[in-house]
Amino acid sequence: MKVDRTILKSLPLFERMTDPDLDSMLEHAVPRRVAQGDAVFEQGAPARSFFLLLHGRLKVTQVTQDGQQIIVRMVHPGDLFGFAMALRRSDYPGTALAAAESLILGWPTDMWSRFVEQNPRLAVTAMQTIGQRLEEAHTRIREMSTEEVEKRVAHAVLRLSKQAGRPVAAGIRIDFPISRQDIAEMTGTTLHTVSRILSAWESKGIVEGGRQKLTICDPQRLLNLADGARD
Amino acid sequence: MKVDRTILKSLPLFERMTDPDLDSMLEHAVPRRVAQGDAVFEQGAPARSFFLLLHGRLKVTQVTQDGQQIIVRMVHPGDLFGFAMALRRSDYPGTALAAAESLILGWPTDMWSRFVEQNPRLAVTAMQTIGQRLEEAHTRIREMSTEEVEKRVAHAVLRLSKQAGRPVAAGIRIDFPISRQDIAEMTGTTLHTVSRILSAWESKGIVEGGRQKLTICDPQRLLNLADGARD
DNA sequence: CGTATTCTTGACTTATATCAATGTCGGTGG
DNA sequence: CCACCGACATTGATATAAGTCAAGAATACG
What we know:
The structure is a homodimer.
Chain A: H1 5-9, H2 19-27, E1 30-34, E2 39-41, E3 49-63, E4 69-75, E5 80-81, E6 95-108, H3 111-118, H4 120-146, H5 149-164, E7 165-168, E8 171-174, H6 180-187, H7 191-203, E9 207-208, E10 215-216, H8 219-226
Antiparallel strand pairs in A: 1-6, 2-6, 3-4, 3-5, 3-6, 7-8, 8-10, 9-10
Helix pairs in contact in A: 3-4, 5-6, 5-8, 6-7
The structure holds a DNA duplex.
């Protein structure tokens, strides 16, 4: 299978690279199709590759010793993932599961330093990417520390609608299958509480639910909720 | 004031740099003493410099719109901080306060890319540093999602004892002034709850408290608590 | 010394988890 | 094509961890 360099070039991460550099990167890339529900890699497995998501949607999860699961982040098209070597560790800290049918590109881990040495700009961009991710993590910590569940869920849903929203007749539809359990694992609560909150919102016309479906009908009211206005 | 390059060289971040490179970095460095309680920079201020903590202890805080404060992280000697440019932003995302009298080294923000271009290795190491920080943030998210307050506080205290512990007669003393409020802001709870927990621990001989003081007397029992053993 | 933080402790409230039961959707295979 | 099964979702009742409110005690500091 052949992947065109123009696809990579459209991503911020690679836009500064020259065509020859891109081609030499692509030479070593291994494309792979991942079926919904399948794992790209598992938590604790040796980090032999790092990846780029071309199409689809992944969730990165971690399980605690006592078996509780959390969603560390969602991976959207254009995102790098499986970045273990940046964390100076040799195994993956989480599991990457396809939330929808996905297409990924993989490179052997040891190619990373070669690419970076060839192209220092890539290192800078990659660091900015991780930096943004750090900032997102801090945002989440801040929310979990100070906000009650409903606001956290509101924020999470708004974020999803930005990153994975597709306009439909009724509003903005989250463009991949997402369960109440998923939202619970993203916000540090239980599926029961999420279900209650979404039911309440639905009866107010703010969202429209469904089995693994979610559509935001009234983004403004959701924003009000997220920003603390008592509805 | 002159800072010796051997100080920098002992830090992992700089250990790979050559002496001339280090000297050229030091040429542009501005040392500064920060009194306890003073801020190195404030949340939202333009990020004109990035810094290295040589001595002392800082806390990086963020305040939410409604005035609640959280501690994003502690800065320990040898840590870089005020890294806003890595996050592709021009202002500081938090406030850096001296928890104890501190000594820092500052460089103009725009020097960063010059240093990195001179020394690509520095970029790799810096990325690993941020990567570690990201992992710490994820750990915190995981704890806040799945663990009850007492376990979170136990983890936080254990971490502090690793990063800032000094052996004393009674056990391991946290080597800078730290209040119950601080611990609450690190674990996403209230000073009342922290106070109750520490009181309970003290009566069991696990820790020894005091005004802005904390000594761990029985690290093993604390570990048991952190790992979920009902005491 | 007195004044201001910081800390402790008790009584009460509440948000959210837990427990439990039932309902509904959507795909699979008979 | 329909019936059934398993996964997902809803909703009520109850429990409880932790927050809030309130008051006072201890410690440091000027």
